[in-house]
Amino acid sequence: MNFDLTAEQHMIRKLMRDFAEGEVAPDADERDRTKQFPKEIFSKMAELQLMGLPFPEKFGGGGSDTISFAITVEELSRVCASTGITYSAHISLGCAPIYLFGTEEQKQKYLIPLCQGESLGAFGLTEPNAGSDAGGTKTKAVKEGNEWVISGSKCFITNASYAKFLALTAITGNMGNTREITAFIVPTDAPGFTVHDQYIKMGLHSSNTTELVLDQVRIPEHEVLGEIGKGFKQFLITLDGGRIGIGAMAVGIAQGAYELALQYARERVQFGQSLSKFQVIQHKLADMHMQIELARTMVYKAAWLKDQGRKFTKEASMCKLYASEIAMNVCNQAVQIHGGWGYMHDYKVERFFRDVKLTEIGEGTSEIQRNIIAREIGC
Prior knowledge:
51% of the residues lie in helices and 16% in strands. It is α+β, with helices and mostly antiparallel strands.
């Protein structure tokens, strides 16, 4: 059992640590205040050929692996979770379903522009009445001649304002008591397609979270993604990979909050000595460090299994569940160590605390992850 990163993975970590510190961190607080999307950052990442990192070079990707993707998400999230989730969604939700289920023609047409950073990737699954119960989809697609006509709505969709096209699900028929759900690739500038960016969120202020409204949107019949009726299964497979991304995001947020708390504890003097000399603070920091290390190991294991072509559904849910819950605890303790200053925006941990909550919700809530794990162990 080898826990060492490869030379390439070490290189990715150094590259992303330098990029995050130099390009992402300096204006992260200001972007949080103004809710400005970090478009320039992703243009620079495209120049570094990072926007298709884990996909084959023939599609414009970096030919790297899932562990490198997790490292990239972690390093971005360590300084700015909004940037981390934008990148994670682009790769694992936007690019992945086209790579996994698209035809060669669709990959040439859609995956290459995504990998080259010409468009951000997005994924249309969640609906106002179909969150954890994604099978409750109500968006419908009706075949008319050689076209599909799609009507319905999606909510909480990341990156759609900056996506030229996206994959989404719609009902195409019924199979007994179950709905037949199919995936489609839909251009966001199609007549009848509207993207609304008007949510007021607790955190992740500089990420793009949208509502999609489709009113009789017509697309050619060849824009079905994968097989008719297999859309829901395809998106479940996609979500397994997405959970590795959210797990990595949670690890990154936790690492950033822990580092801020450790620095503050060393510098803050109370009762004649630094906070880091008090055993109660030492124990908090020790627990935070331990939890982050365990979570990171779980994320990398799930990523390794995926790279080996082995089943990783259980491990993806486990790493996402554990990493998100310890990240919430780490951010909570980081605020506590900062005391009153931790409640103030200028000390950054306040932003981390608001941002981290989404990791317990996105890509399936903690409750859904426990359901998946229970199913996988035979309950």
